[in-house]
Amino acid sequence: YEGLVADGEPLPQVHEIDDHLDNPDYAGGVWGVVEFDVTPYFGKSVRFNATLPEQLLERIDQRVERDQRYRSRSGFLAAAALRELSA
What we know:
Helix content is about 45%, strand content about 0%. It has helices at about 1-5, 15-20, 55-65, 75-85.
């Protein structure tokens, strides 16, 4: 990702695993899934202010508390933004 981001290239589009399994270009391949945080490859963090409805913020905080993928509100919002921008 670092090279793509540095060169201003778009990130690869997200696809369902079945799309890849059915692709003859990948026939006979060995599959593995690795999840990692790509946000460090987008450069330094910048602080900004955002206004959100109280109930939405509470739901975000609950998800962050339950789901170890998100270490903070910022991590959750970054992941949500990346998913939306990749769609």
